[in-house]
Design goal:
The chain has 194 residues and is α+β, with helices and mostly antiparallel strands. The protein contains four helices and eight strands. It has a single domain, classed as 3-Layer(aba) Sandwich (Rossmann fold).
Length: 194
């Protein structure tokens, strides 16, 4: 009877670990996580729609960016946004709302990395790693995620215009088994700067 209980516990553990798990990471340890996030931010900025920003070309614009916390990541993202607005649309970014013809507010809903594991894995409780498991047949996904939406305000008319959400994921995924693994996505293909 104890053998059946042990087998049942192992089978239950295997079945439970065969679903997807997710871990959001706020610390950018190492080059891979830093590249994933910055590539995601770069790609997000390249997705800004031409039709949304053409009316502000050459105009004095005051820009605010918002996130749930002030951080170096938000500072980087804001500077990257400024460069996109001035280089693509030649906006005249001003340092106060009083000097602006338009105001733009950017709300970032995600600036970080995700670790996902999907497939058949067995948890290893005694291992001292971030995701302790033995992969039977799994895909390990490591993503940089950036997402935002934004509003414009015409200072002369007072009209506030909302715009759609934009999302970008830079990814490096690996298919893994106990005997071999291989990349599914190449991180270097995610860069807009190549």
């Amino acid at each position: 009877m104890p053998f059946k209980r042990i087998l049942s516990v192992i089978l239950l553990g295997t079945i439970l670990s065969a679903c997807s798990t997710r871990e959001a990471s706020e610390q950018f340890r190492g080059s891979t996580s830093q590249r994933l996030l910055t590539y995601s931010i770069n790609n997000l900025m390249s997705q800004l729609p031409e039709e949304d920003f053409m009316p502000f070309t050459g105009q004095p614009v005051y820009v605010r960016s918002h996130f749930i916390e002030a951080s170096q990541t938000l500072n980087y993202t804001t500077q990257r946004l400024y460069m996109e607005l001035t280089s693509r649309w030649q906006m005249n970014l001003v340092d106060s709302p009083e000097k602006a013809r338009y105001e733009l507010d950017f709300f970032f809903t995600s600036l970080g990395t995700d670790n996902d594991v999907f497939g058949l894995t067995i948890p290893i409780f005694w291992a001292n790693t971030d995701q302790p498991s033995f992969d039977i047949l799994a895909v390990r996904m490591y993503h940089g995620v950036s997402e935002m939406y934004y509003f414009s305000k015409d200072k002369e008319t007072g009209v506030v215009t909302p715009y759609d959400r934009i999302l970008n994921r830079a990814r490096t995924d690996r298919f893994t088994t106990p005997f071999f693994s291989f990349p599914v996505d190449d991180l270097d293909e995610n860069s807009i700067l190549d």
